[in-house]
């Protein structure tokens, strides 16, 4: 009897092992792929996926993994994953990197899902998964030799991307070589002593050589935004002492037709982290008639490479003391951009607004982290944006004061508006509260530090 039971148990175990590989036999998921970065080299790979369930069973997406295979770039400084937009929600999409040896690829991106992504029902698809990854030093990525790369701008099935349910391969052909050996996570804990940029604007004038040495450009010449024919005048940016503290003053002038506008911007190297500035907005000109549609700003931006380019990014605080863009009076905008085109005008952005006066000094903070852009004014959260509007590339930090085209009131009398900036601060890869920002700035000032930049 004991021998019979043993034999029976052994037979059941063998049967279980035989059934396990076909446990998902009714599952059939196809991976469709496209990219929005089709060049042989790029600053970030933009691998977009859509999963299609052509089987007869409903599959929890939390059981599913997608793998995209590539060759590491030299030097191998590591990679970071980001979700730009997903129908199932970027908060329900995960990404990590693994290594391979001996084949045509030595790295792979593994995309997974949380339970919040739901299930993939028979005949349904996952919707867009607009994903990207980049080197931690933002160095170039060579895509032309990557196993899974295909310069295709529309979705179609692609068998060089694999789909697994558990350890069972449902779709695609992996590259040759040994099985995956290690998996590395894409995130690291914030470093409280990590890179920072702080500038107290302790300069003599707009020609001070330290401005350029520290990465700033005082804009000159023509070009938008603004009224047609306006010029950007470096001489109208000054650095007076106000209440015992050096500030940057933007002073923009017009006479109803000609205009001189002002802008200062930093080099393009800022991405995720906390941005902050203390800004004095003004509701009225310092002289001359009031009523012009003027824009006073603190923002970050990535240049637009082409109309509707997906790598464009912009994060704005814009104050319009006299209204404009269809608004009759004071309004503050917080706007996060996906992209745009000029002709014909198409804007793909999301914004919040406060219809109130912001005359005077205000603490402005925005946090860029974990797929969200959060805006604060004087310590109060006023906007929270994300999904496809989350930035994708490094940006410059900018301040400008300009007049809206068609928004000058009829008088030919001269007038000028001013905006002042007490400081600007950036903490890379850290999410700091407005109170923490104030403490950090005060620590610099207590130590007599007027400028830091190790970003």
Automatic annotation (TrEMBL):
Please list where the region (Disordered) is annotated.
Answer: 171-194, 215-236
Keyword Signal among UniProt keywords: yes
Q: Which UniProt keywords apply?
A: Signal
- Domain GH16, which positions? 134-430
Domain called CBM3: residue spans: 25-176
An annotated Gene Ontology molecular function: cellulose binding
Recorded hits in InterPro entries, A to Z, give:
Beta-glucanase-like, CBM2/CBM3_carb-bd_dom_sf, CBM3, CBM3_sf, ConA-like_dom_sf
UniProt biased composition (Low complexity): 179-188
An example Gene Ontology biological process: carbohydrate metabolic process
List the signal peptide residues. Answer: 1-25
Protein name from the UniProt record: Beta-glucanase, GH16 family
Q: What organism is this sequence from? A: Lentzea waywayandensis
């Amino acid at each position: 009897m004991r021998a019979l039971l043993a034999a029976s148990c052994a037979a059941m175990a063998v049967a279980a092992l035989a059934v396990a590989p076909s446990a998902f036999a009714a599952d059939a998921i196809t991976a469709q792929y496209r990219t929005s970065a089709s060049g042989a080299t790029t600053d970030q790979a933009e691998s977009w996926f859509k999963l299609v369930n052509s089987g007869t069973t409903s599959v929890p997406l939390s059981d599913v993994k997608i793998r995209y295979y590539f060759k590491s770039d030299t030097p191998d400084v590591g990679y970071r994953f980001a979700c730009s937009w997903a129908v199932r929600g970027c908060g329900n999409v995960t990404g990590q990197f693994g290594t391979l040896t001996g084949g045509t690829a030595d790295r792979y991106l593994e995309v997974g899902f949380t339970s919040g992504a739901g299930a993939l029902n028979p005949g349904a698809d996952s919707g867009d998964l607009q994903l990207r990854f980049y080197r931690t030093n933002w160095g170039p990525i060579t895509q032309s030799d990557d196993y899974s790369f295909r310069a295709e701008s529309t979705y179609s099935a692609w068998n060089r991307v694999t789909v697994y349910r558990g350890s069972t391969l449902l779709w695609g052909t992996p590259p040759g070589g040994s099985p995956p050996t290690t998996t590395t996570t894409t995130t690291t804990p914030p470093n409280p002593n990590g890179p920072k940029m702080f500038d107290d604007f302790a300069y003599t004038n707009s020609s001070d050589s330290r401005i350029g040495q520290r990465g700033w450009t005082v804009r000159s010449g023509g070009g938008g935004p603004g009224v047609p024919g306006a010029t950007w005048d470096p001489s109208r940016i000054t650095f007076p002492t106000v209440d015992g503290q050096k500030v940057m003053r933007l002073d923009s002038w017009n006479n109803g037709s000609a205009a001189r506008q002002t802008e200062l911007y930093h080099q393009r190297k800022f991405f995720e982290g906390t941005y902050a500035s203390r800004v004095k907005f003004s509701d009225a000109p310092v002289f001359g008639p009031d009523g012009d549609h003027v824009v006073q700003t603190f923002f970050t931006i990535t240049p637009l490479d082409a109309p509707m380019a997906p790598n464009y990014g912009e994060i704005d605080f814009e104050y319009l003391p006299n209204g404009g863009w269809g608004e009759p009076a004071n309004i503050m905008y917080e706007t996060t951009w996906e992209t745009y085109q000029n002709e014909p005008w198409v804007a793909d952005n999301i914004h919040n607004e406060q219809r109130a006066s912001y005359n005077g000094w205000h603490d402005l903070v925005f946090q860029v982290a974990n797929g969200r852009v959060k805006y604060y004014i004087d310590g109060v959260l006023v906007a929270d944006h994300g999904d496809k509007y989350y930035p994708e590339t490094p940006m410059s930090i900018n301040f400008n004061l300009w007049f809206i085209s068609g928004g000058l009131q009829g008088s030919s009398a001269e007038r000028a508006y001013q905006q002042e900036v007490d400081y600007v601060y950036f903490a890379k890869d850290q999410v700091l509260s407005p109170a923490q920002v104030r403490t950090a700035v005060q620590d610099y000032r207590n130590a007599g530090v007027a400028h830091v930049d190790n970003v």
